[in-house]
Structure formats: structure tokens, C-alpha cells
Amino acid sequence: MIEEVTGIRRIRMLYLQLLYRCNFECGHCFHGERLRYQDAFTSVQASNLMRLMRHEHGIEAVTLLGGEPFVYRDLARVVRYAKHDLGLAVEICTNGYRIAPRLREIASCVDLLRVSLEGIGDTNDHVRQAGSYTAALESLALARDLGVPTGVTMTVNRYNIGEVIELARILESLGVAQLKLHRLRPIGNAAARPEMVVRDSTEYSVMREKLRRAVLNIEVVLDDDLAEGSSSSCAAPAPRREIDRIEVDPRGALTMSCKAVGTDAQAFWYEKDGDRIVHRPGPDDEVLVGIPDVVYRHA
Q: What's the CATH code of the domain at 278?
């Protein structure tokens, strides 16, 4: 159905939000009130969707996220199916809070553990939860010891924009391979936290210049919206035969652009019971409006 409507044949990675439920309620979370929704994939539904996307669009990898994927009861079953039955590369995005027992259980099947951090020490804990910074670093160290490659994602905001270099150096010492920086989008919980927004876009340019000058042994990538004068909207992308990713939320709503995730801009839905993707166009869906994807660049 996706190829029929858009011409997109190949999709490299499926981002699979297993559930909305989370043990945190972070100040910047794009889910907002949906964190309290009960929607979730069963392990069978998750496996069916991964298989469908593998067969119809040739996905090579799956990223499991939520909510918090480590509170998902059947995480190990989904991970093993993705790795052993479908041969997919498996990435998990997590807050890293008290995940040690379950990480040990699935470590051999995980190709990348990506932990979210929002700064150093109290800066992170102010946005996330008390004790979450220490727990995240402990999880990164455990993953290193288990031989699981690691990355970190940070959403740049007013509190942490000055801590990027120092955080990168801390992560280097833990063997983290990559730090990925996103611009804060004022949706979900962030819509009620305007004080988190970086108001002066020249601060992004200062951050980028510091990154260019810093001598770092960690890869730093950042979305192109973290540039002076950048806008959250731009011209619609040209038609494509291949895309890097598609994301599905716990209800089954599919989005192709990171800039559409967390909104109701979906044009496609995965029907869990029918195990099929259907086209349900709306007046503001991402296909009709032409929402561009985030572009990532090296710092």
C-alpha cells in the first residue's frame, strides 16, 4: 500500500513503538498525555509487522522504543524474533533506568543500545527523573562490559545546550560510539514547558562552532534544524523510491518523517488484527502536506 500511494519501495529501518507506558514522564517527551494511553503491541502483532515490513519493503533493521521498551513484558521475545527469525539488526532506545537484568538477558541479540540523556547530573535529572543520570551511565557501562555497542541521544534545550562538549567527553570515557543531538520540538509535554525552548537560534551556531573546534573521539551527529535561523518547516521533499525509516506508534499509526512523529499527521495505519497496512488520508497528513524528514549531519 505504501508503494502504491507514494512510490516508496525500500525502507531501511522500522521504528517500532511497542507501548506508550513509561516509568518516566520527561519534560520534553513528544508523547505528552499519550504516556497514559494503554495502547500497545502484543508480541505477535509486533512480530507480524516486522515480518510484513521485511517482506514488502526489505527492512534491514528495527529500532524498538516506547514509552520505555524495557518495561515491555515481551521485549526478549520480540528482540529474538527480529534477530534470529528475520535477521534484522536490532537497536533499542531506552532511558536506561534499572535495565540491567533484562539487558543481560538479551545482550547477544542487541546491535545498538541507545540511551537518552538530557545533560549532565542535575541538568538531566531536572528534565527526566531524580537518579536517572547515574542510572543511565551505569547502563552504558554495563552494555560496554557485555559487548553491546552504545549511543546516546540528547534533545537540545535551554538547560543543556552548554553541556554538549562535556557530556561528549564523559561518554567517550564509557566507550559510547555516537552522540546524536535533536532540536526540541514544542509538542507533547514540551508544549507546556516553553521555558525549555532555546529562543535565540544563534546559540545553535555557537554550539556547532564549539563542536567543530573540539577534539573528540566520539561521533557527534545533529539534525539540521540545530542551525542558526533554521525552521521546523521547509519545502516538500522530492518523490523518493527509498527512505531511511518509518515509525509506527502503539495504535498502529505510521509516519515517515521524524517531524511528523508525535502528531496526527499519519496517512497510513497498520491494522493489527488484519496484519495489513491501509491508507487513510486526511487533510493534513504527511503525504498530502509533504512534511520533510530530519536531515542529520556530522558536527
A: 3.20.20.70
